[in-house]
C-alpha cells in the first residue's frame, strides 16, 4: 500500500533534484522497516544511506529537504539545484546574497578598579595640618607649631605616632610611648591618644591603628600596654574592652 507521506517526500525530493529510496523491509519491528534515504540521480548517497540500504526516518528526510529548500534560492523558482560536492580539505564558501555579517560583540564594560585598602604608616611633617584637625576633634586645643615640634621630638626617641590612610588622606592617628618603671621588669607601653575622623569611623580603622601600635611596642620590648581614655568617652571604653583591654586602675591628673 502506498504511503501518502512518503509519496509527498518523493515528490519534494524530485523537485530538489534528488531521489527518495524506500526500504524493502515490509515486516514491522524488523531493522530498516519504514526507513528511507536520499540519493542523487546517479545513485550516490546524499542522506541516510549505507551499503545495505536506507537508514533515515521520514522526519529526518523531511527536515533535510525543508532546509535544503530554504538554502537554495533557486528552489523558489521551481529549479532543481543539486548540492555541490566539496573537494576534500576545502571549506565551503557561504553565498554572498544569503549570508548576513556576523554581529560584532558588544564591547565589554571596563571592570571598576577596586577601592584602595586603608593602610597605616608613621606620621610625617606634611601630616601636621591634618593631625591638628584630628586632635581638635578629640577635644584638645593645639596649634601646628606645637604639633610639628612634638613630632620632631617623638621621632628622635623612636615614638613617632602612627596614622591611618584612606583614599590618600590621613583619617586617624594613634600615639605610642614606652616608659621604664622601677616596679616592672620590662618597659611599659602606653597608648596616650587615639582618634579616627568621624567620616571614617565604623570601618575597622581604630582596630588597625591599635594593632599597629601594639606591634611597635612589642618590638620595643614592652610586655604590657596601658591606655589613656577620658572618663566621658564610654564608646571608647567599650572599644578597648573589645580589643582585650581591662580596667585595672584609676587615673588622676594635676596641672602644674
By helix and strand content, what is the structural category? Answer: alpha+beta
Residue stretches low in confidence (pLDDT < 50, at least 5 long) are 73-83
Number of beta-strand segments? 12
Strand portion: 15-25%
Order of helices and strands: HEEEEEHEHHEEEEEHEH
Tell me the name of the CATH class of the largest domain: Alpha Beta
What does the overall shape look like? rod-shaped
Average pLDDT rating: 84
Name the CATH homologous superfamily of the largest domain: Gcn5-related N-acetyltransferase (GNAT)
The CATH topology annotation of the largest domain reads as Aminopeptidase
Secondary structure tally, helices: 6
Q: Can you give a write-up of this model?
A:
The structure is a single chain. With 256 residues, this protein is of the alpha+beta class. The strands form four sheets. Strands 6-7-8-11 form a four-stranded antiparallel β-sheet, sandwiched between helices. The longest helix is centred in the last third of the chain and has 15 residues, at 205-219. The N and C termini lie far apart (124 Å). The radius of gyration is 44 Å and the shape is rod-shaped. It is 29% helix and 17% strand. It has two domains: 4-77, no CATH class; 119-242, 3-Layer(aba) Sandwich (Aminopeptidase).
Topology:
Elements: H1 4-15, E1 19-22, E2 36-39, E3 45-47, E4 49-50, E5 53-54, H2 58-71, E6 119-122, H3 128-138, H4 144-156, E7 162-166, E8 169-174, E9 177-179, E10 188-191, E11 194-196, H5 205-219, E12 224-227, H6 234-242
Amino acid at each position: 500500500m502506498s504511503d501518502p507521506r512518503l509519496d509527498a517526500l518523493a515528490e519534494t525530493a524530485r523537485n530538489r533534484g534528488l531521489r527518495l529510496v524506500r526500504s524493502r523491509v515490509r515486516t514491522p519491528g524488523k531493522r530498516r522497516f519504514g526507513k528511507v534515504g536520499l540519493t542523487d540521480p546517479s545513485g550516490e548517497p546524499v542522506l541516510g544511506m549505507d551499503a545495505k540500504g536506507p537508514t533515515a526516518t521520514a522526519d529526518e528526510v523531511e527536515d533535510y529537504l525543508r532546509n535544503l529548500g530554504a538554502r537554495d534560492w533557486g528552489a523558489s523558482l521551481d529549479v532543481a539545484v543539486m548540492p555541490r560536492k566539496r573537494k576534500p580539505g576545502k571549506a565551503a564558501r557561504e553565498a554572498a546574497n544569503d549570508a548576513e555579517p556576523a554581529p560584532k560583540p558588544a564591547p565589554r564594560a571596563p571592570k571598576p578598579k577596586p577601592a584602595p585598602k586603608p593602610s597605616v604608616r608613621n606620621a610625617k611633617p606634611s601630616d601636621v595640618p591634618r593631625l591638628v584637625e584630628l586632635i581638635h576633634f578629640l577635644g584638645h586645643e593645639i596649634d601646628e607649631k606645637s604639633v610639628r615640634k612634638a613630632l620632631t621630638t617623638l621621632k628622635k626617641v623612636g615614638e613617632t605616632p602612627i596614622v591611618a590612610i584612606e583614599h590618600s588622606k590621613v583619617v586617624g592617628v594613634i600615639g605610642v610611648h614606652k616608659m621604664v618603671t622601677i616596679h616592672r621588669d620590662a618597659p611599659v607601653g602606653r597608648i596616650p591618644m587615639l582618634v579616627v575622623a568621624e567620616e571614617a569611623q565604623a570601618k575597622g580603622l581604630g582596630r588597625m591603628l591599635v594593632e599597629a601600635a601594639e606591634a611597635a611596642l612589642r618590638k620595643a620590648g614592652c610586655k604590657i600596654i596601658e591606655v589613656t581614655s577620658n572618663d566621658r568617652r564610654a564608646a571608647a571604653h567599650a572599644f578597648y574592652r573589645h580589643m582585650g583591654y581591662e580596667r585595672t586602675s584609676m587615673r588622676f591628673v594635676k596641672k602644674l
